[in-house]
Design a protein that fits this description.
The chain has 275 residues and is an alpha+beta fold. It folds into two domains: 109 residues, Trigger factor ribosome-binding domain (Alpha-Beta Plaits), CATH 3.30.70.1050; 154 residues, Orthogonal Bundle (Trigger factor, domain 2). Helices cover 59% and strands 9% of the residues. The chain starts with a strand and ends with a helix.
C-alpha cells in the first residue's frame, strides 16, 4: 500500500490511498473461501462443493461490500500511521471505481485537533467576574453571566475549526430540526415559510452555530489542558450515584466516558467563574 497527503488551510487532511491489485485479489479470494464454507449447493455437503459452483451462487455485490469493509479500514489505518496523524473524526471516504485486476485508489478526508491560542483570556474574563466579587452591605453580589464569559473566551481564542467538523455538526443540526418538524406534522417547506428563511439561509445559520459551538468546545478543552483540570473515578461514581432512578443510573454507567467529559467541562466552567 502507499498514500499521499495534502493539508488544506481549512483544517481538512486529504489522504489519497492506493491498495495494490494483488492485495485486492488475496482478500477477495479469502472472502470467497469463507462464503464457500457457508454456502449450500444441492448434491453436496456444506463447504464441499466445487469452487466454481459455489462462486456462481455467491452474490458479487456482497463480495465487493465485504472486500471494501475489510480493506478500507486497514488501508486508512496504514496511511494514518505512515503520516503520523492523530485524527479526531471518522474519515469521509470517496471511491471512484472498484475493478477486478486493478489497483484500488480512494480518497479519505479527515482532520486533527487544531492549534488553539487562548490569548489573555484570564484578564478578559476577570473583567466580567470582578463585579460578582464586589460586596455591598445589604445587597446580594451580582451573579456571573456565563454567556458573557463564553463571549470573552471566544473573542480571545484564535483557532481554525476544521471544515469537516463544521459540516458534520451542521448536518446533525439540520437533521435534528427536520425530525422535530416532522413530529409537528409540518413539511420542511412549511417550516421555512414560517421562519421566513430559505434552505440556504437555514444551513448558513446552523453552520455559524456549529462553528461557534465547536470553537467553545475546543477553547474549554484547551483551558482544561492548560490548567490540568481532570476528572477522577470518584467524580464519575458520585455523579452516577445521584441518578434519579435505576434506568438513568444504567445509562450513565454505559456512557461513563461521555459523563466524564461533561464533568470536566463543568469543572472548567467553574474555574472560569472563579477567576
Amino acid at each position: 500500500m502507499n498514500s499521499t497527503i495534502q493539508k488544506q488551510e481549512n483544517g481538512t487532511i486529504t489522504l489519497t490511498i492506493t491498495v495494490p491489485a494483488t492485495e485486492l485479489k488475496k482478500t477477495r479470494d479469502e472472502i470467497v473461501e469463507a462464503y464457500s464454507k457457508q454456502t449450500q449447493v444441492p448434491g453436496f455437503r456444506k463447504g464441499k462443493a466445487p469452487k466454481k459452483l459455489v462462486e456462481n451462487k455467491i452474490d458479487p455485490q456482497s463480495v465487493e461490500e465485504e472486500l471494501l469493509k475489510t480493506l478500507l479500514p486497514k488501508a486508512y489505518s496504514f496511511a494514518v500511521k505512515q503520516h503520523n496523524l492523530s485524527p479526531i473524526v471518522n474519515p469521509r471516504v470517496h471511491i471512484e471505481k472498484l475493478e477486478e485486476g486493478k489497483d484500488l485508489t480512494f480518497v479519505a478526508e479527515t482532520c486533527e485537533s487544531p492549534k488553539i491560542d487562548l490569548g489573555d483570556y484570564k484578564a478578559a474574563i476577570k473583567n466580567i467576574t470582578a463585579k460578582s466579587k464586589i460586596v455591598i452591605p445589604g445587597k446580594q453580589p451580582q451573579e456571573v453571566n456565563f454567556d458573557q464569559i463564553m463571549e470573552e473566551l471566544i473573542k480571545n481564542t484564535k483557532v481554525i475549526v476544521p471544515a469537516l467538523i463544521i459540516e458534520t455538526e451542521t448536518q446533525r443540526l439540520l437533521s435534528q430540526t427536520l425530525d422535530e418538524v416532522k413530529k409537528l406534522g409540518m413539511s420542511l417547506e412549511q417550516y421555512l415559510a414560517s421562519t421566513g428563511k430559505t434552505a440556504e439561509q437555514l444551513r448558513n445559520d446552523y453552520s455559524q452555530k456549529a462553528e461557534n459551538d465547536i470553537k467553545i468546545e475546543f477553547a474549554l478543552g484547551e483551558v482544561a489542558r492548560q490548567e490540568n483540570i481532570t476528572v477522577e473515578h470518584k467524580d464519575v461514581d458520585e455523579a452516577i450515584a445521584k441518578a434519579k432512578d435505576e434506568n438513568e443510573k444504567r445509562s450513565l454507567q454505559a456512557n461513563s466516558y461521555l459523563l466524564a467529559s461533561i464533568l470536566r467541562q463543568q469543572k472548567t466552567l467553574d474555574f472560569l467563574k472563579s477567576l
